[in-house]
Protein 1
Amino acid sequence: MWGGAPRGTLGTMRASDVVPLHVADLAYPEEHPLAGRTGPVLAFAVRLADGIVLVDTGLVTGNAWIDEHYQPRRRAIRDALRESALDADAVRLVVNTHLHFDHAGGNSAFPGVSIVVQDAEWAEAWEPGSPAGEWVDFAGARYERVRGDTEVAQGVRVLHAPGHTPGHQAVTIDTEDGLVLIAGQAAQDARAFATAEADASLMRLRRLDAARIHLSHDRTVLRRTERH
Ligand SMILES: [Zn+2]
């Protein structure tokens, strides 16, 4: 997929090479389970020695319905990278946890860059009535569809974690500080991640016993020491 090499003289990454990017805040609309609350949207940059794997790309722009219903305050993904001293032109690979407007909405900022999605998610995006085509399709779009768990760069894996959507995927990164998990929207927040039951994907992700866990809609980073 992409042979990116880990950073550092030891050839390994650190947990700090997974950089959260705060790309938006949303006001959840009336019909949403979180109605009345405002919540963050995070994307993540994974720094490898010779480039960046970007997990999610933030919000779509120019959709009147979304702007009215979610009242987003957004940062363009390339700006968010720059503000974290990261070069958007160093993005070698994009991973979408899923294809909703707040996770894949900025994909068009990366023409020609491979974007990894689960096959099941891709199929869902093109179902009648799905709006996703509006931001999934763009000039220079290059999607790589995978089925199930796949290593996408050295030490970086996607794990199929269906639930929120049929093709939702999480990402794991091997680091010197232990396994870092980007759980995406497998859980809405850290509390749900730690406690939700009867969710096969969440139970599987919890069993990984990652050293750090990041979520798409909660800025809390779960650390193993705090959980034990
Ligand atoms: Zn979301």
Note: The mean pLDDT is 93.
Protein 2
Amino acid sequence: MILTGHNTMKEKIKKSILKVKPYVPGKPIEEVKRDSGLKRVIKLASNENPYPPSPKVIKAIEKAATTVNRYPYSDCYYLKDALVKKLGVSSSQLIFGNGSDEIILLAVRAFVQPGDEVVLAKPSFLMYSIDAQIEGAVIKSIPVKNYQYDLQAMKRAVTPITKLIFLGNPDNPVGTYFTDQDVRSFLKGLRKDILILLDEAYFEYVEQKDYVDSIKLLSEYPNIIVTRTFSKMYGLAGLRVGYGISSAEVIDFLNRIRDPFNVNSVAQAAALACLKDKSYYRQIATDIRQQRAYIYQELTKMGLQYVRTYTNFIIVHIAEADKYVEFLLHRGVIVRSMSAWGLQNCFRLSIGTQAENRQFINILKRALKDIKEHKL
Ligand SMILES: Cc1ncc(COP(=O)(O)O)c(C=O)c1O
């Protein structure tokens, strides 16, 4: 047997990977229960839907479970057909992924070469920079202004070697949105060989009339890819299904590098059933809106500042935020530290059910008192 030196693999690994900081997800409920011994733990950390899937979706999952001895449809045939009808696009314009994460990954893998520039907002969804770093891109992070994308500064950052621009609308963790007019002025005069990834993971939560009509935009800009997901509003985060919409040309490129069975059959059946159960999800949207208003009201009473968002999560401003993240965690409420995004004075909270939000507010009140009084 040949014994290898300690550094050998480090020397062999793609250099770009050495710089990558692994994505740290929100802690799972079971892990916190195991570590803390607490019986009741709630998770408000990963922008999930706090409600279970609709009874019709559960039925579809049960039915699909009986045929998992077969491989799934490679092209998500029925799900694709339903979205073709719903969105009014052609089937060649759609691609499905193991979460929209996979569509982002495929787009970066297909287009970005070492040394290409990628423009994104700071802070923004962490997978944008992780995927781009892996491909050896030069990342240009443009700070948000007042928690809004600074689209003018992002446009100024474009150079002849810019390959890809990430636009999260609304983005995570900021939660704000830009309008149709904003994105149209941004695109005007921009080279049409730059891929624009318009991430709409949370678009179902936005009710504003001036929100981007991305399907219309796609008919004018074949270099845009819109990504969406069943993880957020439709509550299928655990099944992993998302999709991308673009020109047939871009979708064809992504399909060449996609694993043939990347979306499992249970996920396909569940997503299709979600699309058919509109009233259930409409009710959830109303509920999240009401709960958001409740949380805003309670934070204001506590004298805390927050970012007004158009999503199911909120950034809360508080000095030494990680102390509060820990305090809440030890009492069974998981919220997200923003230190991975470089934000020390805030944490992110996903909107839960009424009972969960009340529990969060009560514990936060205690935290404010204890941390201030006892200088914890
Ligand atoms: C802005 C944004 N885009 C994409 C995703 C990926 O979601 P999924 O892979 O579950 O579709 C997330 C998940 O948190 C997100 O916040």
Note: The chain has 15 helices and 13 strands.
